[in-house]
Amino acid sequence: MIGLNNSSNLKNKIHNTFIDHFFLNINKNKIFNNFKIYKDFISIDKFNEIIFKLIKKNVVGIYNVSLGQKVYLNELISNLNFHNQNKCKTVNIPEKFNNDCFYLNNKKLLKAIDVKISLSDLKRYCRLLSNIYFNN
């Protein structure tokens, strides 16, 4: 999931998410070169909408709450960094980083509830987060 964390001290968290790592590295003026890596992301707002609709329709079962598409990390990073005025250095990913690629099948979810999930919505959401983070 993609969303801003209200915690200002990311270094002391037990678990850092992708976006936590992004903002930690941006503060160091570096971006990892993730051009071949993709994962399946969804905005926290869209996740909340989906969970609300599942509860409202009293749906039971196990569902992949996801975008259901490949989201290349470089594209995601580009949108999260959209409003950053500083130049960042692109560096190679350390070997210890998880570079598994995956995306989920969400067809069962789409049949259960009427929801539209799109890559362009995620792009807009990431640019909104970028605006909030870099212009405050």
Query: What is the count of helical runs?
Result: 5
Number of strands: 4
Beta-strand proportion: 5-15%
The top-level CATH class is: Alpha Beta
Give the proportion of residues in helices: 25-40%
Number of domains: 1
What's the pLDDT, averaged over the residues?
A: 88
| Spans where pLDDT lies below 50 across 5 or more residues | none
| Gyration radius, rounded | 16 Å
Order of helices and strands: HEEHEHEHH
Work out the oligomeric state of the chains in this entry. Answer: single chain
Q: What is the architecture at the second tier of CATH?
A: 3-Layer(aba) Sandwich
Q: Largest sheet, order of strands side by side?
A: 1-4
Shape: globular
Largest sheet: 2 strands, parallel
What is the topology?
Layout: H1 18-26, E1 30-32, E2 38-39, H2 44-56, E3 71-72, H3 73-80, E4 89-91, H4 107-112, H5 119-134
Parallel strand pairs: 1-4
Antiparallel strand pairs: 2-3
Verbal overview:
By secondary structure, this protein is mainly alpha-helical. The chain is built from 5 helices and 4 strands, in the order αββαβαβαα. The chain has one domain (10-134): Rossmann fold. The chain has helices spanning 18-26, 44-56, 73-80, 107-112, 119-134, and strands at 30-32, 38-39, 71-72, 89-91. The strands form 2 sheets. Strands 1-4 form a two-stranded parallel ribbon. Strands 2-3 form a two-stranded antiparallel sheet. Helix 3 (73-80) packs across helix 5 (119-134). The protein is globular and about 45 Å long.
